[in-house]
Design goal:
Largest sheet: 7 strands, parallel
Low-confidence stretches: none
Number of strands: 17
Bound molecules: flavin-adenine dinucleotide
Shape: globular
Structural class: alpha/beta
Mean pLDDT: 95
Number of helices: 8
Strand order of the largest sheet: 7-11-6-1-4-5-12
Order of helices and strands: EEEHEHEHEHEEEEEEEHEHEHEEH
Length: 321
């Protein structure tokens, strides 16, 4: 049976996040030839609708309200539920982002639905789709099927390839008007830490440092390498706890989960809690002076050496490319 699928797109600072396009691709697989409807919530998102259609949505519904300028679970759940009631889809897809992780259980409970969270791949399509998701902090993967009722999934960023952009694709962008009320939280101002360059969760290359980097200044060459490779800097909790960098860079079980094409771990031992956030990276390079370091168990390429000697050489090599 073909399905109508609602996909929540995410925008930040006036631009759609990549995970929105990845979620559309997942929705296409699930829809089995049915309709994929993008949903955008915000204070000014109407102009972004067309781009979702270029990436595969059949049509887009926007909900605009001043209270949706910043994400709150109360505001976004009211907005999304209004679209749900209008559309009555058979399936829902969110990104497994900070927003998606917060909002999806709330919506699932309102709809009395199950939730298949953190999907990293989909086998088959339509009613035969099987969802693959990590368990036990990424040590194993389980396959989950949804045989009846609403299908609700969240997709891990950087795992499902988006469809190629087709600027010639057209579709309807309409709006639903919702009176957003009874907010328990109103966010009037957001202070963002300024991070250089690329968003860590969506970066194709991550250069991550650990306690071995030894200081905040020690992170400067990591940033240089990340910039050269068009990537972002991440960190272990050890490095964050030692105040070498901000907690917003922490990767792992209690930090961000990343799946870049290339993960370079510098002076990181490879604790299980760290690996939970990066072990699915496509290629892992580890630099560590201890040949027994756990990180080498998941590394595709290992360099045993002093990072203060290896990193400058690596930077010089990359500059030559
Ligand atoms: P260390 O374990 O101290 O490793 C430093 C490494 O640097 C060593 O392997 C050493 O050989 C190497 N090194 C030192 N000097 C050099 C040099 N000059 N050149 C090359 N290599 C060098 N951790 C996370 O990262 N993310 C999480 O989300 C997370 N969540 C946690 C949740 C819980 C409930 C708990 C209990 C822990 C969590 N941790 C997490 C902490 C985790 O257990 C580790 O303590 C932490 O990951 C260690 O960080 P590290 O590898 O930087 O430091």
């Amino acid at each position: 049976m073909s399905k109508k699928v609602l996909v929540l797109g995410e925008a930040r600072e006036g631009a759609l996040r990549n995970v929105s396009f990845e979620a559309i691709a997942a929705a296409k697989t699930i829809a089995g030839g049915g309709e994929v409807v993008g949903v955008l919530c915000g204070d000014a998102v109407q102009s972004l609708g067309e781009e979702l259609i270029h990436y595969g949505a059949d049509r887009v519904i926007t909900v605009e309200h001043p209270h949706l300028k910043q994400y709150t679970s109360d505001g976004f759940s009211q907005a999304f539920m209004a679209v749900y009631e209008q559309e009555k889809p058979e399936a829902i897809v969110f990104g497994h982002t900070a927003l998606g992780k917060d909002l999806s259980p709330k919506i699932a409970s309102k709809l009395d639905s199950g939730l298949i969270s953190d999907v990293t791949a989909i086998e088959g399509e339509g009613d035969d789709a099987v969802f693959i998701r990590p368990i036990y902090s990424g040590k194993a993967f389980e396959k989950v099927e949804n045989k009846e009722g609403l299908l609700f999934i969240t997709v891990r960023p950087n795992n499902i390839a988006p469809l190629s952009q087709d600027a010639g694709r057209t579709g309807d962008v309409s709006s639903v008007s919702v009176d957003i009320t009874n907010l328990r939280t109103i966010i009037s101002e957001v202070v963002r830490k300024s991070t250089e360059g690329v968003d860590l969760s969506e970066a194709k290359v991550v250069v991550a440092g650990g306690r071995g980097v030894k200081s905040a200044e020690g992170f400067e060459p990591l940033q240089e390498l990340a910039n050269l490779l068009g990537g972002a800097v991440g960190a272990s909790r050890g490095a964050c706890d030692a105040d070498y960098c901000d907690y917003s860079l922490q990767i792992g079980q209690t930090g961000k989960v990343v799946t870049p094409d290339l993960y370079i771990a510098v002076g990181i031992s490879g604790a299980i809690q760290h690996m939970a956030g990066m072990s699915n990276s496509k290629v892992i390079v580890a630099i560590n002076k201890d040949p027994e370091a756990n990180i080498f168990k998941v590394a595709d390429y290992g360099i045993v050496g002093d990072l203060f000697e290896v990193l400058p050489l690596l930077i010089d090599e990359v500059k030559e490319l």
